[in-house]
Write a structure and sequence with these properties.
mannitol-1-phosphate 5-dehydrogenase activity; 6PGD_dom2; N-(1-d-carboxylethyl)-l-norvaline Dehydrogenase, domain 2; four-stranded mixed β-sheet; about 500 residues; five-stranded parallel β-sheet; Rossmann fold; 2 domains; oxidoreductase; alpha/beta
Length: about 500
């Protein structure tokens, strides 16, 4: 008989009884959280961070390690107040449920996040917290668009409104009005430099090729714009390790909250993810690190080959399935993958176009990795949505797929399937699916891409003419040929028939 729903909130005081309440189904921290002290500040606390980096640290703490590496979340965006309030209401605990394709579940309460600071309430207090010498790592999951980079030039955009405001504020010594994580982190580094304290490591965990290098270039550029000497010090003294992170983590739903409640307690913001997880991390830190390797993290000298494998196979394949899948009427990722043509298309893209651009990976079976991805995408237990994968395409496509296109064009290799994926984005951006239902396009450049997509039928290359996104690809006859063929086919016969044509060819 199902357990009745309960209003027992997840808090520290509930932990001793939780095993009994849930009939042993929910594991709880074995360590004394009152003994955990801060060592990491994480900017961008969302589902992925809580299913990935925070989980690895919780795993270490359950081994009796890393109790001086507790995580303090830092919210910078106004919307982050929701996460602050949800976590604060339950002593910063939350439930992580991992689901395997066979339906097996692992449910555990994660305790490695010990506090959360909402910077807009008091930016100067956030700087003080970051400047605390106990903080030895500042980690980031701020999405691809958070680094304020020009898509074509690859350089830091230093004249945007909030960046310019924070630069002026720092030059005036005003910490009270800072708006961006660039301003907050740079202010804290300036304080470390002033007091002679060792700087923290800045550890990007975003899906960007060379994410540590990107973080280095953008933070150093911002610091130099504030003060040349400060920028030189950041360049010389701060470590920015590259990393590759992987775990499919869909957005939390009310059904996920209900699933937790059915166990006998309530959680305002649980997390659900697949059972697969991977973290490859460059072993380069300014002020020490947890023994991540004891929690299953792979510490390496060079992350780049692993990054390319993941970004160009997994992440780009997500884009390869989402637009075609949404246009065809699917709303859940596992429903897309239940149609064999999608798996065949993704394997063809990965094998023919993505894999030739990868660097050597000794000991990695690429064919097995590709087929593992297809199985992961088809995991119905995760309940990942197609719309999540379609979001923020103007940031994702240039970083995950277009590098594949450019390398293949330069080498004289085919780009037909990659061009078709871009065409499917252009068709999706028109804002209506094949049944005439409206599409809500979630993208920081939504209006801009919609305006371009509205011209697709009159000017088949209209979408590609945005050089800020696509650079000079509109000038490539090889690319535009594949793109034009696919877009015309999407308009003429639809997504499924277009995939059949691509596979047949």
């Amino acid at each position: 008989m199902p357990r009745p729903l309960t209003t027992n909130p997840l808090t520290t005081s509930l932990l001793p009884a939780l095993a009994d309440i849930t009939d042993g189904r929910t594991a709880v921290p074995s360590y004394d959280r009152s003994q955990v002290s801060p060592g990491i500040v994480h900017i961008g606390v969302g589902g992925f961070h809580r299913a990935h980096q925070a989980m690895y640290l919780d795993r270490l703490m359950n081994q009796g390690q890393a109790l001086d590496w507790g995580i303090v979340g830092l919210g910078v965006m106004p919307s982050d107040v929701r996460m602050r309030d949800a976590l604060a209401s339950q002593d910063h605990l939350y439930t992580l449920t991992t689901k395997a394709p066979d339906g097996t579940e692992d449910i555990r309460v994660i305790g490695s996040i010990i506090d959360y600071v909402f910077a807009p309430d008091d930016p100067a207090a956030a700087v003080t917290m970051l400047a605390d010498p106990r903080i030895r790592i500042v980690s980031l999951t701020v999405t691809e668009g958070g680094y304020n980079i020009d898509h074509v030039s690859g350089t830091f955009v230093d004249d945007s409104e909030h960046i310019a405001h924070d630069r002026d504020a720092l030059q005036a010594g005003d910490y009270d009005s800072l708006r961006t994580f660039f301003g907050l982190v740079t202010a804290a580094l300036a304080e470390r430099r002033r007091t002679g304290d060792r700087p923290f490591t800045i550890m990007s965990c975003d899906n960007i090729q060379g994410n540590g290098n990107v973080a280095h270039d953008t933070f150093v550029a911002f610091a130099r714009s504030v003060d040349a000497d400060l920028g030189a010090w950041v360049d010389d003294a701060v470590a920015f390790p590259n990393s590759m992170v992987d775990r499919i983590t869909p957005e939390t739903t009310d059904d996920d909250r209900s699933d937790v409640a059915s166990l006998g307690y309530s959680d305002a913001w649980p997390v659900v993810s697949e059972d697969f997880t991977q973290w490859v991390l460059e072993d380069s830190f300014t002020a020490g690190r947890p023994c991540y390797e004891d929690a299953g993290v792979q510490l390496v000298d060079d992350v780049v080959p692993y990054e390319l494998m993941k970004l160009r196979l997994l992440n780009a394949s997500h884009q390869g399935l989402c637009y075609f899948g949404y246009l065809a009427g699917h709303r859940m990722v596992h429903d897309v993958m239940a149609d064999p043509r999608f798996g065949e298309f993704l394997l063809a893209y990965m094998t023919d176009e993505a894999t030739p651009t990868l660097q050597p990976l000794p000991g990695v079976d690429i064919d097995a990795y590709r087929r593992t991805l297809i199985r992961r995408f088809g995991n119905a237990a995760v309940k990942d949505t197609v719309s999540r994968l379609c979001a923020e395409s103007s940031d994702r496509i240039p970083k995950w797929l277009l590098p594949v296109v450019r390398e293949n064009l330069a080498a004289g290799r085919p780009v037909r399937l990659s061009a078709a994926i871009v065409a499917s984005w252009a068709r999706y951006a028109e804002g209506v699916d094949e049944d005439g239902e409206p599409i809500t396009v979630v993208d920081r450049m939504a209006d801009r891409v919609a305006t371009a997509a509205a011209q697709n039928r009159e000017d088949v290359l209209a979408f590609l003419r945005d050089r800020e996104i696509f650079g000079d690809l509109v000038d490539s006859a090889e690319f535009t040929s594949g793109y034009t063929t696919a877009l015309n086919s999407l308009h003429g016969v639809g997504a499924k028939a277009t995939l059949d044509i691509l596979l047949g060819a």
